[in-house]
Every structure is written in structure tokens, then in C-alpha cells.
Amino acid sequence: MDTYLNEKPLHIHWFRQDLRLSDNPALAKCAVNGDVLPIFILDDCNAGSQEPGAVSRVWLHHSLLALNKSLNGALRVFKGNPIEIIPKLISETGANGVYWNRCYEPWQIERDRIIKLILRDKKVECESFNGSLLWEPWDILKKDGTPYKVFTPFYRRGCLSAKEPRVPISPPADITLSNKKIGMNDINDLKLLPNLRWDQEVFEGWDIGEKAANLKVIDFIENRLYDYKDGRNFPSKKNVSRLSPHLHFGEVSPNQVWHTASHPKYMNSTGLDHFLSELGWREFSHSLLYFFPNLPTESLQTRFETFSWIEDLDLLVRWKEGNTGFPIVDAGMRELWRTGYMHNRVRMIVGSFLVKNLRLHWNNGLDWFWDCLVDADLANNSAGWQWIAGCGADAAPYFRIFNPVLQGEKFDKDGIYTKQFVPELKDLPNKYLHCPWTAPESVLKAANVCLGKSYPHPIVDLKQSREAALKAFSDMKASN
């Protein structure tokens, strides 16, 4: 990879959620056409409430550093409105074209549409590519031309019956990077890191960037894929891939993951079909967001507009802080706060607790996850919360209410996960770990647990809150 002053035609590659060199269709096309000016724009103008959360911004910072290193320091960064920045760049550099890989958030689709109109009006070549999905949403439709609203037929009948996901492409073998002094070349100038450096502890267990992502793909597929089907349900086990943030920021493409996992030497793995279907769920979430752009804010099942949600700031704060008095819920919320991540099984448990036992609107959970998760993704986050709340496409029925005690006893029987994040209960016998309020006073004393002081009393009664939720659901159905 060479870096020098341009003599050949200059083309701009706009990095977005594709922070990698390999399997990057837009970058490959850009490199073929001439010299490449690689740019990244922190768009703080068009996203509104959907701008990256605090934890996502930190991940983005480190991912950009890794990308810039791969580009020999040639990445130029900007902050502002791409609708203004890109035409100005064309004028200042004399670039012949702009290339990017598509994003599917509604606000990005609209912004990109405007930019394409401006560039084409100026007779500037402009082309976008699919670098983030296995299948384009508009290619996976029912026979009547409408989008799927149920996952299984979407994946089995739609995706798997379509053409095979494209084979990943190699990094450009011959790419000349521009060294034009334009914009900024210091990632720190984007000011993505917090002033109070809480991020150092949160990101201690994460390796970020394309190289780390590819290593993680291989490690997961070779060492944990075989037991993925069952092992993924137990938060203390290491059977999940933890690839979601790498996929969101595009440090690795879903095509790379799909084809690596589908290699003949892994075809007999019992976990393969389940893992590929999880990639399918990611596709389903993006399809829903594409066809239903209000997914992040409005229930897909409109009857939920009359549901009697509760507004209680104290309950919400207790949930966010992991002080609900239900150990598996608290462990999950504290894992989120401490690591920027939460095991998927536990996400379902804490989500069910929020929208059903506390009966707080799912938007509260979506917003908190958006700010705290390293893998905060608008499509996945929105579809996931609507699934949990029972108000989305192919959602879990509202009357399916997870019992956090039974969930803890089933999926963290020995308390390894719970005790890691709720250490004040580490000496409590496993018999009482997931329901400490049932333990005799002598047992609590021996374990140095004082309910209401060292660990909170339950903030709701499970039976009463379940019955209240079911009544609210019944009333909603009657009102509709």
C-alpha cells in the first residue's frame, strides 16, 4: 500500500460502518478507479436522538485508530454535516467520484439520498455498495412483494432460498492513498472519548479493530461454535461469539463470518445452524428497520398504543443501577455498566423484568442500552426490545413473562455469573442465591447479607406484578 501525492484521478472512499480494508466493496471499487482519499465524517447534525451513545463513541474512537494504522496514517477525519462537507471536498480536491457502503438507518438513508442528488447534479460519479448485510432488504420479500414480519419464513423461505451471500473479497492489492492535507488526521480531534475516563475500565476486556475482529471470528468458530446451540444460554460459559460490536462497526463483514463458519470442516458442528440463524436474525432486524422506519420509537403492533405503561423514575433508576433485589437482573445490569456488554439470555431476562414486572415502556430500555452497549445497533436494539415487549414483528407474546428467580436457577445454577457481578451475595448458599429474601435470617447473617442495607429488598412482588401485567394486557385487548 503506497501513500504519495496524486497524479492519477482521485476518488474518495467514505468510511462509515465499514471500518476495515478486507471485504470492502466500495473501497475495492475506489482503488480500481484511481488514487484514494479515505475519509471519515462524524455526523453530529443529521442523527438527532440516534447519534452514537457514550460507549459506542469510545469504541468508534479505537476502531478509527486501528483503521488509520492500517491505512498508514492516511485517514482524514471530519466533523459536521456530510451534505455540506462532501461537495466541498469535491471542489477542493478535484475528486472524480465518491464511494461508500450503504447504511440502513432511516436518517442515514435520507442523508445519503440528498448527497447523491447533489453529486449527480454536479456530474460527479457516486456509487454505493452493500458491505454490511448478507442480503439487501428489498431482495427478501414475500411472493406478494411485501416484507416478511415473521422471522422463520423470512430466514428459511426468504434468505436461504435466495442466492448465496457473496464471497468476501480481499483487501485491494494495489491501492495508492492520497496524502492531501485536508480535514484532520488526528482522531482525538473528534473528541469521542469522555472527559472523565470511565471508559478505561469498561474497555479493558475488549480488543478493537479489523485484526482483532478476524482473530475473534476464528477463535469462536474453532473453539466454541460446536457447543453454541446449548452453551449460548448460560451466561457463565464462553459459548457466545461477542462479534456484535465488530459487525456493527464493520470491522468484519457478515459475509466473512458466514463463509468462514460455513467452511466444510465446520459443517458437522451442532451449533452451526443456530449460529447462522443468529446472523439471519440480524438481517431480519435490518429488514424491519428498512421497511418500518418508526421501529425505534413506535410499536409495530399499533394496539399497544393503548397499553397502560407506568411512569416511575425511581423504579427505572433501580433497574439501571442493578439494585432491583433480583440477583440475575442486577448481575445483568451491572455487567452492562461495567463492561458495555450483556449476555443475550440475560438481556431477555432484564428486558422482560422492565416491561412486564415493572411495566415501564420498552423505550426506556432501548435508550439505556443505546447509551451503554458496545454493540448498540439501531436495528438490533429496536427489534430486540419490541420482541421482548411483545409489540413487534414475530414478537414473544406479552403473556410470556420470564421469572427471574427460575431463570437464574436454570441458567446460572451455580451462581458463577451472578456472584461475579453481585459480589455481596457471594457467600450465600446457591439454594437462596436467586431469591435471598426467602433465606432464614441465620443464613443471611452467616453470609454477611443484610437485606435493605448490603443488598436491596425486591422492588416488586413477582406474582402481583405478573398478574397486573396480564390484566393490563387483557384490558388493552378489550379496548381494541
Characteristic key phrases:
single chain; 480 residues; alpha/beta; 21 helices; 46% helix; 7% strand; globular
Please explain how this structure is put together.
The protein has 480 residues and is α/β, with parallel strands linked by helices. The protein is 46% helix and 7% strand. The chain contains 21 helices and seven strands. Strands 4-3-2-5-6 form a five-stranded parallel beta sheet, with helices on both faces. It has a two-stranded parallel ribbon with strand order 1-7. Helix 5 packs across helix 11 and helix 13 packs across helix 14 (344-357). The relative contact order is 0.11.
Describe how the helices and strands are arranged.
Elements: E1 2-3, E2 10-15, H1 25-33, E3 35-42, H2 54-70, E4 76-79, H3 82-93, E5 97-101, H4 106-121, E6 125-129, H5 151-159, E7 176-177, H6 199-202, H7 210-223, H8 228-231, H9 244-248, H10 254-261, H11 272-291, H12 313-321, H13 327-339, H14 344-357, H15 362-372, H16 378-389, H17 404-411, H18 416-421, H19 430-433, H20 441-446, H21 462-479
Parallel strand pairs: 1-7, 2-3, 2-5, 3-4, 5-6
Helix pairs in contact: 3-4, 5-11, 11-16, 13-14, 15-16
Sketch the topology as an H/E string, one letter per element: EEHEHEHEHEHEHHHHHHHHHHHHHHHH
Poorly predicted parts: none
Count the helices. How many?
21
Beta-strand content estimate = 5-15%
* SS-based class: alpha/beta
In which range does the helix fraction lie? 40-55%
Overall shape: globular
The radius of gyration is: 24 Å
Q: What is the makeup of the main sheet?
A: 5 strands, parallel
Annotation, overall tally of beta strands: 7
Strand line-up of the largest beta sheet? 4-3-2-5-6
| Span of the ends, CA to CA | 63 Å
The pLDDT mean sits at 94
